[in-house]
Write a structure and sequence with these properties.
304 residues, mainly alpha, single chain, 66% helix
Length: 304
């Protein structure tokens, strides 16, 4: 489940950092930043931390050192980035409680992105005691501040009646706002609301149209749902070849369910000639990517 991104304001000249090696001397652009950072420039500290993350391979330990210095100087982006580093085990062991502490600091200082992350953590109870109502309040505040991910998760709160009173109209409105900002999962969610008749008359054709729109911008969940529509012929003519094609696109995007279903297609000869070896290869990939169905299948069908 996706939560946050690293905030980076590194100057364009730092593009040269991506070709440097972490064990080599600093690039000229990085040295200029370090000179400024050593004089107490908190923005330069943050940019230098981002530059260390751009190295090949990245130097997350030094990145964290400079983010911490920037945060200590009160730099808003530095504070947020420290939280992100704790959240994602970059340069330090994962510590979601510490991440929440820094997200809250950044949110209190005016970061809308941090506000979203603080709300997300409260809603799901990551690094802090679970409080869905308070989490939803922060998600709504961040959504009103323009954060597209907050719009998406707030819509889910209204749809599911979690942290908010269930309200399908509000859910649809927020999903559409997120969709307008090209948040692909929102388009998939709108499609599912049409499938299930949540606040709207059930309409499988409209559902498929939303799945297409999500798939068109690379959303893997939309690809999987579009593939399933083709597989069973709901809202669209049944077409096993197109079903396999969309499952494969989802798989290529790293979606474990897509991988599992590509394996199932090879297993059952759906849209392709049956091929047990290909089926097992895809099931293995899917299990490694986190598919419980693939894991169950492999356990029930051990290799001979």
């Amino acid at each position: 489940m996706f939560k946050g991104i690293l905030i980076s304001f590194a100057v364009l000249s730092l593009a040269t950092a991506s070709v440097a090696m972490a064990d080599q001397a600093l690039t000229p652009a990085m040295q200029q930043l370090k000179d400024k950072a050593d004089k107490g420039d908190a923005n330069a500290m943050t940019d230098l931390g981002n530059a260390y993350l751009a190295l090949v391979p990245e130097d997350d330990k030094n990145a964290m050192v400079w983010f911490m210095k920037s945060a200590a100087g009160g730099n808003l982006n530095g504070i947020y980035n420290v939280a992100w580093m704790y959240d994602n085990a970059k340069g330090v062991p994962a510590d979601h409680a510490k991440a929440f502490e820094y997200y809250k600091k950044a949110a209190d200082a005016g970061s809308v992105q941090a506000e979203y992350c603080e709300g997300w953590d409260l809603f799901y109870g990551l690094g802090v005691a679970k409080d869905q109502q308070q989490g939803a309040k922060l998600l709504e505040k961040a959504a009103n501040g323009g954060n597209v991910a907050a719009m998406y998760y707030l819509a889910g709160c209204y749809r599911d009646g979690a942290g908010e009173d269930q309200d399908f109209d509000q859910a649809m409105a927020w999903f559409k706002k997120a969709s307008d900002l090209n948040y692909g999962d929102a388009r998939d969610s709108i499609g599912r609301m049409y499938q299930q008749g949540q606040g709207v008359d059930p309409d499988n054709k409209k559902a498929v149209n939303w799945f297409r729109q999500g798939a068109a911008i690379g959303d893997a969940l939309s690809m999987v749902d579009l593939a399933y529509a083709y597989l069973i012929g709901v809202g669209v003519d049944k077409d096993p070849d197109k079903a396999l094609a969309w499952y494969r696109k989802a798989a290529d995007a790293g979606n474990a369910t897509g991988m599992y279903n590509v394996g199932a297609c090879y297993l059952n000869g759906t849209g392709v000639d049956a091929d047990p070896k290909q089926a097992r290869d895809w099931m293995t990939k899917a299990a490694a990517a986190g598919s419980p169905d693939a894991t169950t299948w492999l356990a029930a069908n051990p290799a001979k």
